[in-house]
Amino acid sequence: MKRFFNTRERLVPEALEGLLRSPAGKDLCRLDGYPDIKVVLRRDWERGAGKVAVISGGGAGHEPAHAGFVGRGMLTAAVCGSLFASPGVDAILAGILAVTGEAGCLLVVKNYTGDRLNFGLAAEQARALGLKVEMVIVGDDISLPGHRQARGIAGTVLVHKAAGHMAESGASLDRVAAFAADVAARTRSIGLSLSDCDTYDEEHASRLAADEGELGLGIHGEPGAKRIALADAGALMTLAADALLETLPEGDARYGLMLNNLGTTPVIEMSLLLEAFAGTALAGKVALVAGPAPFMTALDMNGFSLTLVELTDDIAAALQADVGPTAWTGMAPWQEPVVIAVPNLPDIFAAAPSNNPALRDAVQRGAKVLLENEEALNALDARIGDGDAGSTFAETARVIDGALDRLPLADPQALMQTLGRLLARHAGGSSGALLSILFATAGRSDQARWQAALLEGIAAMQGYGGAREGDRTMLDALIPAVRALDEGAVWADVVRAARGGADATARMGKAEAGRASYVPDGQLADVPDPGAEAIARLFEALVPRT
Predict the structure, then answer these.
(1) Distance from first CA to last CA of the chain, Å, rounded?
(2) By mean pLDDT, which of 58-62, 196-200, 348-352 is the weakest?
(3) Beta-carbon neighbour count of residue 235 at 10 Å?
(4) Domain 357-542 CATH class label
(5) Annotated catalytic, 220?
(6) Of 159, 348, 476, 522, whose CB count within 10 A is highest?
(7) Is domain 8-197+213-333 given the CATH code 3.40.50.2300 in the classification?
(8) 128-149: per-residue pLDDT in tens?
């Protein structure tokens, strides 16, 4: 896998330096002591202010946890280890000494052996120095129900939030620790991923087949509780949600949900997953939601985790309180999407339908050829663009063909106006928009002849689209064809003009407009423009029947 890093050893310190240079780090600082001591803390923190400090940390690779949650209302300091490795005792002790005043400090620790031992030893040393230190261990993973030591995963962030809020309010160490422990006890999480993660290992090979995922996996690349077959998002979300639902006690308790991105799941898919969650049986028990967002990641893992916390009034208030760290995206009421009425849009079919048998037949033949050539045009576009030109023209064909019975085929001006509105409403892509402009402008033209009106429509296409003849776009086929129509040429000459324009694009060394203008010239050689090719094939299909 290709990665952005210099060396594995410098990865974490350099990432922390980047955080401190960023807007998210404007209120943060770090202790001197790299590479062994990697502690990020609040710049505004005053040990003598009488407030409890809240400290957490652990191995790197889970960003934005832990350093991203340092700030007002959450963590006072984060102690960062190397990649997926607990920080050392001295680093933890340095963090405790840097921020702990008379009010004491709370350590929030994920339930892993290294973290428990190192944070525990540091706590003992701090107590020996006269400091008040308490520790809360978070074990929110429910994927291994028979295991005595549940792992601490994304739910730890909710404990950060709750403890930080209580500490910010000025509560005593005993109250902060008790509140954090209560939240931890009420929290449960499960992860689901379609991939494992690569820990910057040159020999990394995924343990999962292309059609497999895992349910109940850890945040360090540990294998999941079970392998699962690849399925659609709704089915996968139901698997995870049902696993959580089975662990809930009976009753009418309300819950807060956190939907966490485990690393590289695209934003659009994370939003879709939250919508998928709305269709699960668990959704009816949810009152608050945080995310979707990355809270506790696992490097490049392509997956998500669900965290539930049983709410009390105090917990709900703590989770919704404003904080300084921008990595915490907030928690808000779970609600149905708000929908308002669409404003009245122009009536697409304002003109009465009428028939023109020859034109109707031509439209059907044109639609047929664009549909038949969808895959071929997509393949052509894939060589120089994003591979969807055929689909875009095919969709335009479907829209027009499906509306044939409602079109004013006997009235050219009304027909062009209707086509302009129809394509604006339903056709996609740049070609659909450009053809909508063509017909809408032509339909408003004062020209007596529809051929001349189409030339005005082409001028509007050029004005909005920015392309000219010779720029290697569909205009290279469309302009000569419509020009021939306007000059009264026979249809065979119109077709030759369109075909000649399309073929000429394959000899054009550089595209000056459209997506192909971003493609290196060498990749364009001998490849006709897909849009121009579509126009040429369309005109060839429109040859009048004798």
Answers:
(1) 61
(2) 196-200
(3) 12
(4) mainly alpha
(5) yes
(6) 159
(7) no
(8) 999 999 999 999 999 988 777 8
